[in-house]
Specification:
single chain; alpha/beta; Rossmann fold; OB fold (Dihydrolipoamide Acetyltransferase, E2P); 2 domains; 5-stranded parallel beta sheet; 5-stranded antiparallel beta sheet
Amino acid sequence: MKKTAIVIDDERLARNELKKMLLEYAEIEVIGEAVNADDAKKLIGELNPDLIFLDIQMPGKTGFELLEELDRLPYVIFTTAHDEFALKAFEVNALDYLLKPIDPQRLSDAVQKLILADEKEQLTEDGKFEARSFLGENDQVFVKDGEKCWFVKLSEIRLFESVGNYARVFFGSNRPLILKSLNSLEERLDQRTFFRANRKHIVNLRMIEKVEPFFNGGLLLEIKGGEKIEISRRQAVRFKEMMSL
């Protein structure tokens, strides 16, 4: 089903370039454009688009401030020249986060996310649309812990570990904490790549080096990096079904 879209960016050349790229997608019809948050808010109210392509840094209000003022949230794909906002985009459930100049393949990935999210869209209790962002192993996420930050591909993350209301992210020699529950991460991760081993761990199936029988019918995984993770007996049944021919 075709989706209507508005392009919101204060740079005319950026708007024109994106509109030209979107001509390749029959799934999307651009019905308007705006140069700042106030104009965008008015246009969204008038045209009620399914999707907005939203720049973050604009004269006056930012793209995030625009979203806070909307009564109904359409799907959101951020377009920006800066990657330092990626974490916040992740937190507001944006479909995707495209860095300028926009790579055609990344735009194609974002459109595929739109199609998938449209199939799974939900109504929140107050009647507003909640656009879920589904993350594949080739997607990049912005991870910040204190003064340190990383822009990392999900395929490079071997393990998520629950630490209270936080999750510890294992990639390379790094172990930063992010303010995300394991349950919320599980909802957004591709289950063909990431597996919920037990109450405290989600593992990247491609990072498993060794599988051994373990106590009481469970399994013990050895992950690249040396971590050893127990799969509970109940999850071990699922794991064997997934990994068998």
